[in-house]
Specification:
The complex is a heterodimer of chains A (about 325) and B (about 290). Helices cover about 35% and strands about 25% of the residues of chain A. Chain A is of the alpha/beta class and about 325 residues long. Classes of the chains: A alpha/beta (about 325), B mainly alpha (about 290).
Chain lengths: ~325, ~290
């Protein structure tokens, strides 16, 4: 086995990478550099997420371009690379008739671990994921949540440096989803694993990831730290006040501001012109005997960022912060 | 989840060559078969046939010490220690093995395509060739356990129960025959069942296709030969081709009989190549769409 390049600065580095299925171009000249950490991969159905994941995993050869993951070449060193990556697919991908512990141990052996070590490690990982009580049961009889954790155990058993997770919360109830996200967050933050989380659920990415890759129709629309990609000034402020409700709100409108939303009494989100000075909020409030308690500039959240980049801004209002992006 | 209650530990070991993964695939495949009682019905049938021969050889050895005439009488029942006897035994065992593979193919191969096992295998540190070799070795191991291994045990038993070890020295061709016929059965059946199960993964269609391939083609071959009078039509019966080639390994095939062993070998080799191409195409297709 080739030795791993010493601590690559970039987790993933792709240069002009394209992939064709026949005449259909699934990825178009993708170039990106991603630092180690928790990375979200967002995109609509057919955007190219799965193709990108399969190329990163070494299951597919890119039609053109080149790239490295963990410093390993995607084509020439893909077997070495796969031994250092844990993959949790969206599909069931279990072997019927096998017990949980045997399945996880097999995953370890197929990743290059000796049998005895793989078995010991399978027990450890299953305990860590709280599957120790069902480890001797056949995996066919597991619940959806258990199967998801079993797939995660199979991905973790050989202690990979990078985890590729395809829709890890698919099919889970809210409680199971919450538990899975906490687990992924712990794996990334406490145990220093890098992970690439491909999902439709922006809320999942918001909770676990600090970086994001946004894919649309085979192209990368945005890539980097979520905080850096966000627009910090949207020209909107959230105001909270005590005192004269209707008078203050009316005065804001008369001053040329547009009230976007009124979440509750004594609170509005207003859109301001480019040359607006914040001090003017206080002047208006003073004239109407209202006491301003909060003046908070509105920052872009992940759903807004996503929709801005894929060009579906008009749908923002109806998209919940933790829901599916509309396609 | 109480993450703090159970810690995550790192693994510092050195990964082994991916070819070791083939052995893991074989072990898991065999355990999947031998753990199910359904398959034990067919394995038991093979075991019964083996035990009958085993006991008969023992009986013959015991009685022949007392009376030579009884030994000659028992030779009528074909447990004679000759190549012909082992070829007949392996032919019977191969039939049972074919039935076993018809049902086990879905468990060993088909479920990988139906239930995502392929993604499980191919997303680990092994490549598609490691997967293919691992699965082929698993099927070959099943064939060997049911056909070659019992024949070898009977051969050793026969020689050991003879008056001297001269039997082994006098019959090297029998040993070659057992190994040769066993290899033919293992190679052809493993490639063929893998290819069929990869494309027809569900149990019932798989059983129908697998048995139909042998039974229907044999029927077609016989019919064409009857119509045309050309014995080369018999090459279409793959099952008989394996049998003829196996008997050639034992030296019990009439060299003047058409079709000859060479033609059978050519047909079976072509069948193996086609099967391998189908397997690789299927695995590649799953890599792309999974």
């Amino acid at each position: 086995m080739s030795s791993a390049p010493t601590s690559p600065a970039a987790l993933v580095e792709l240069t002009q990478l394209s992939h064709f299925y026949g005449k259909f171009q699934a990825l178009k000249n993708v170039s990106l550099t991603v630092a180690p950490g928790a990375i979200g991969l967002i995109g609509q159905n057919g955007a190219g997420k799965s193709t990108l994941l399969k190329i990163l995993l070494g299951l597919l050869n890119p039609s053109s371009g080149r790239g490295t993951v963990l410093g390993f070449d995607l084509v020439r060193q893909r077997h070495e690379l796969r031994g250092r990556i844990g993959f949790m697919p969206e599909a069931e991908s279990l072997i019927p008739g096998m017990r949980g512990v045997d399945l996880v141990a097999l995953a370890g052996e197929l990743s290059g671990m000796p049998r005895r070590q793989a078995l010991r490690r399978a027990h450890e990982v299953l305990s860590y994921l709280e599957l120790d009580e069902v480890r001797y049961r056949q995996c066919d009889g597991y619940s959806v949540g258990m199967k998801q954790r079993l797939k995660l155990a199979a991905a973790l058993v050989h202690d990979p440096q990078l985890l590729l997770l395809d829709e890890p919360t698919a099919g889970l109830d809210p409680q199971g989803r919450d538990a899975m996200l906490r687990l992924l967050h712990a794996i990334a933050s406490r145990h220093g694993k890098s992970l690439i989380l491909s999902t439709h659920l922006l809320g999942d990415i918001d909770r676990v990831c600090e970086q994001v890759i946004i894919v649309d129709r085979g192209s990368i629309l945005g890539c980097g730290r979520i905080g850096e990609l966000r627009q910090h000034s949207l020209g909107r402020y959230r105001l909270r006040w005590r005192g004269d409700d209707s008078g203050f709100a009316q005065a804001l409108t008369e001053s040329g501001l547009t009230i976007q939303t009124t979440p509750r009494a004594g609170e509005v989100v207003v859109e301001v012109p480019a040359d607006w000075k914040t001090v003017r909020f206080f002047e208006i409030a003073a004239r109407h005997s209202a006491i301003l308690s909060d003046v908070v500039p509105e920052e872009e959240d992940l759903p807004r960022l996503y929709h801005r980049l894929i060009g579906t801004d008009s749908r923002l209002a109806s998209t919940p912060a933790t829901g599916y992006p509309k396609s | 989840m109480e993450l703090d209650q159970a810690g995550y530990r790192t693994w510092e070991g050195q990964p082994r060559s991916p070819w070791w993964g083939c052995l893991s695939i074989v072990r898991v495949g065999l355990s999947l078969i031998f753990r199910r009682w359904v398959f034990w019905i067919l394995i038991g049938l093979g075991l019964l046939n083996f035990l009958f021969h085993f006991a008969f050889i023992y009986l013959k050895a015991t009685l022949s010490v007392q009376n030579e005439n009884i030994a000659r009488f028992l030779d009528n029942y074909k447990v004679t220690g000759t190549g012909q006897a082992y070829a007949d035994f392996m032919f019977a065992q191969a039939g049972i093995c074919a039935l076993l593979l018809a049902f086990a193919g879905s468990t060993l191969i088909g479920s990988d395509y139906r239930q995502g096992g392929m993604v499980f295998y191919l997303s680990r540190g092994i490549g598609k060739w490691h997967y293919i070799v691992g699965k082929l070795l698993t099927i070959a191991a099943v064939v060997t356990i049911v056909t070659t291994l019992p024949a070898l045990i009977l051969f050793i038993e026969y020689g050991t129960l003879s008056n001297s070890f001269q039997y082994f020295l006098d019959n090297p061709r029998v040993l070659c025959g057992i190994l040769g016929y066993g290899t033919v059965l293992a190679v052809v059946q493993s490639l063929l069942i893998f290819a069929i199960a990869a494309w027809v993964p569900r149990t019932v269609p798989l059983v129908m296709t697998w048995l139909g391939l042998f039974a229907l083609l044999k029927g077609l071959a016989d019919a064409m030969r009857a119509i045309d009078g050309n014995r080369y039509w018999l090459l279409l019966g793959f099952w008989d081709d394996m049998n003829r080639l196996g008997r050639w390994c034992f030296g019990s095939l009439d060299p003047n009989r058409i079709p000859s062993a060479g033609y059978c070998l050519a047909v079976l080799a072509a069948l193996c190549v086609v099967s391998l191409v189908l397997i690789v195409r299927r695995v590649r297709a799953v890599e792309v769409v999974s």
